[in-house]
Amino acid sequence: MNILWRALLRNRGKVTLGTFLIGVHQACEALVPILIGVIVDRAVATRDLGQLVLWVGVLAVLFLALTTAYRLGARLLMRAIADEAHLLRLEVAAKVLDPRTEVRTGDVLTISTTDADTTSYLLDYLPRIFGALVATAISAVGLCLISVRLGLVVLIGTPLVLLALQRAAPRITKRVAARQEVAGRAASLATDLVTGLRPLRGIGAQEAAAHRYREVSGESLEATLRAARTMGRFQAASSTVSTLLACGIAILAGWFALSGRITPGELVTVIGLAAFLGEPFGTLSAAPGWIASSRASAERIAAVLSVSPESPPPGQIPIPSVRGGECVGVVAESDAAALVELFDDGSPDVLVAPHHPELFSGTIRQNLINPEKSDLPSVLVASAADDVVAAHPDGLDHAIADRGAALSGGQRQRLALARALLAEPRLLVLHEPTTAVDAVTEHAIARGIRDLRHRPGSTLGTLLVTTSPALLAVTDRVIVLRDGEVVATGTHASLAATDETYRAAVLR
Predict the structure, then answer these.
(1) How does the protein associate with the membrane (predicted)?
(2) Which long-range contacts (CB under 8 A, 24 or more apart) does 480-487 make?
(3) 2, 147, 379, 427: which one has the fewest Cβ atoms less than 10 Å from its Cβ?
């Protein structure tokens, strides 16, 4: 997937117009020293007031044009950059939110922020390169009109400088990619450590975890320094070469003026163009490094977007049918996760609550998504989340950290279950929703789910993928899956009484 090419295509309108306007701005910038030279020769040297007023007026119009072109062009390009970065973040988020896609958390952070921004900057780099080429071409033509030798220095020297600097682009790409890769590993490890801080303290492993993070952080620092050194050397070389080229033009022009080959106005033009050419030369010499950075980030984004979700082969795992008003339990000895994924197809009538709940920073109320529904108290009781709310003075307005880091595993599970129950989907699929709660709470939750969703006359269906006897006991029927096949069906009580394998799997 060519992320850079696609970015250009879907922003081609803004980029095309923005590039044209930046080209106009740079063309006007290059014409400024040429016009000043004309003013010196035609108005100052001849003391002609009419010519002075005329050419100063032309210069004022030129400044108005270059200012307007830059403001409009920069605004278009900044909008294109922001839109593209936003779209890339949405695509990365959609890919990693698919439970079937495995991507390290730290990689998600760096790819959706740094890499998305660096990739979208290409939409600014190319117009700037185009503008620098326009400015260089106009300056070269202006110098040729004054002296062919001066023009040839620009026309020949610029491509040679660019070709020499381009040789460093592959190394820059490699170093930037390595830096982002190690930074992703460090961020991922830090996220895992923060999430599992309580268990680590419980087993006394916080020092070992901290040592491991210091190692990865050190690797990230070293990779960052290597990339910075490479970019620093490249920028130093490009600036030095660009400055030397501009100085060479100015020195050559001074010699021509002393020998009488050019007029005072032409000398002013040459000196002005030599000073001005430092900007486009700097842009053109830095361009390979910019492109290399964008390409490195684009390759990391493409690697994530090209990951294919791992789906079980069609027909390998039977999909249990759940009738309206029915509560069905599924004991899948080895296919539980794959079975749950089969229901996660984005249907508005089906809600899949994963085994590992995700909470975000905010209040308990905000995490419940729709806490204004009239049956909120019943939902909190059914999920045993009323204890979590009551444990804090602020109640529903209690602030929780990202991923619920300050909550216990059982509290996170109960809040996630409350959120799922509050949505009232036609079919609710729950995958082991009570593994982090105690036995008493588990029985209360099982009865609460049954009473809330399957009261008389209810048309709602619930599928419990679990091995919890408390949850299975409130189901209408239980389906036992083994190696992708249905091996037993019946009530929890009947299976527990007659199937020894079932007893071994669920009775504990």
Answers:
(1) Multi-pass membrane protein
(2) 480/330, 480/331, 480/333, 480/505, 481/317, 481/318, 481/330, 481/331, 481/332, 481/333, 481/335, 481/339, 482/333, 482/334, 483/334, 483/335, 484/316, 484/317, 484/318, 484/335, 485/318, 486/318
(3) 2
DSSP 310: -
Q: Distance of CA 269 to CAs 15, 47, 139, 252, 385, Å? A: 32, 19, 10, 13, 77
Burial environment of residue 431 by CB neighbours within 10 A (0 to 12, 13 to 18, 19 or more): buried
Q: Name the average pLDDT for the chain.
A: 80
Residue located via tokens 């296919």: 335
Rounded Cα gap, residues 293 and 300, in angstroms = 11
Residue 462 φ/ψ, nearest 5 degrees? -135, 130
How confident is the model over 421-467, as pLDDT tens digits?
Answer: 988 889 999 988 988 888 889 999 999 999 999 988 889 999 999 98
Instruction: Evaluate whether 430 touches 417 at the Cβ level (below 8 Å).
Output: yes
Topology of the domain covering 327-506: Rossmann fold (3.40.50)
* Per-residue model confidence as pLDDT tens digits over 293-341: 888 888 888 888 887 665 555 455 677 788 889 999 999 866 677 777 7
> What pairing do the DSSP bridges indicate for beta strands 399-400 and 327-332?
unpaired
The count of C-alpha atoms lying within 13 angstroms of the C-alpha of 180, restricted to the half-sphere facing its C-beta, is 29
Which strand (E) or helix (H) includes residue 351?
strand 350-353
For residue 38, how far is the Cα from the chain centroid? 51
Q: Measured between alpha carbons, how far is 35 from 49 in angstroms, rounded to an integer?
A: 16
Are the C-beta atoms of 483 and 341 separated by less than 8 Å?
no
Domain ranges of the chain: 3-183+233-305, 327-506
Query: What gap in Å lies between CA 215 and CA 147, rounded to an integer?
Result: 61
Least confident of 179-188, 234-243, 386-395, 446-455: 179-188
- The continuous run of DSSP H or E covering 331 comes out as strand 327-332
For the domain covering 3-183+233-305, report its CATH number. 1.20.1560.10
Using alpha carbons only, what angle is made at residue 102 by residues 100 and 103, rounded to the nearest 5 degrees? 140
Beta-bridge mates of residue 58: none
Contacts with 435 (C-beta within 8 Å, 6 or more apart), sequence order? 355, 413, 468
